[in-house]
């Protein structure tokens, strides 16, 4: 084919679908099923080195807990080994885990934080 050949004209629209009797067939649109988003809990794990005050600060800053609730959650983690910081959609939970781990790294603390399906 030469360089300056005319471009192909666009395809004509497809003829309407016909049923066996020759009538038009209209595709019915199913109402979209909207599932609620899966929820994930962000869980913080105990360790022997991260200061209690740092954990309380993290719970206040990243999980919007007041001082009393943050202290209760921190003590639960300290005594039971783990505790739920909050429950969020997948993307939000993943972001919170990243932010907490980054803050722990910056502070030089071994604090661990994970997300799991709620
Ligand atoms: N166990 C830590 C200490 O005694 C405190 C701590 C609490 C650490 C909760 C991590 O997720 C944590 N300093």
Q: Give Rg in angstroms.
A: 28 Å
Strand order of the largest sheet: 2-1-3
Output the helix-strand order: EHHEHE
CATH superfamily of the domain at 37-118: Ribosomal protein L7/L12, C-terminal domain/Adaptor protein ClpS
CATH architecture of the domain at 37-118: 2-Layer Sandwich
Number of helices: 3
Structural class: alpha+beta
Ligand inventory? L-tyrosinamide
Could you tell me the CATH topology label of the domain at 37-118.
Ribosomal Protein L30, Chain: A
- What is the CA-CA span between the terminal residues? 61 Å
In helices, the fraction of residues equals 25-40%
Count of DSSP strands: 3
Any overview of this molecule?
By secondary structure, the protein is an alpha+beta fold. It has a domain at 37-118: 2-Layer Sandwich (Ribosomal Protein L30, Chain: A). The protein has helices at 52-63, 67-80, 90-107; strands spanning 39-45, 82-89, 112-117. Strands 2-1-3 form a 3-stranded antiparallel sheet. The termini are far apart. The protein binds L-tyrosinamide. L-tyrosinamide (TYC) binds next to strand 1, helix 1 and helix 2. L-tyrosinamide (TYC) binds at residues 44-48, 50-52, 55, 74, 77-78, 111.
Topology:
Elements: E1 39-45, H1 52-63, H2 67-80, E2 82-89, H3 90-107, E3 112-117
Antiparallel strand pairs: 1-2, 1-3
Helix pairs in contact: 1-2
Bound molecules: L-tyrosinamide.
List its traits.
3 strands, binds L-tyrosinamide, Ribosomal Protein L30, Chain: A, 118 residues, disordered N terminus, alpha+beta
């Amino acid at each position: 084919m030469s360089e300056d050949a005319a471009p192909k004209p666009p395809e004509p629209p497809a003829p309407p679908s016909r049923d066996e009797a020759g009538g038009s067939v209209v595709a019915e649109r199913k109402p979209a099923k909207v599932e609620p988003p899966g929820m994930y809990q962000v869980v913080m794990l105990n360790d022997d080195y991260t200061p209690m005050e740092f954990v309380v600060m993290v719970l206040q800053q990243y999980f919007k807990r007041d001082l009393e609730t943050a202290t209760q959650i921190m003590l639960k983690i300290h005594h039971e080994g783990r505790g739920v910081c909050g429950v969020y959609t997948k993307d939000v939970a993943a972001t919170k885990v990243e932010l907490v781990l980054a803050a722990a790294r910056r502070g030089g603390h071994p604090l661990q934080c994970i997300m799991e399906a709620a």
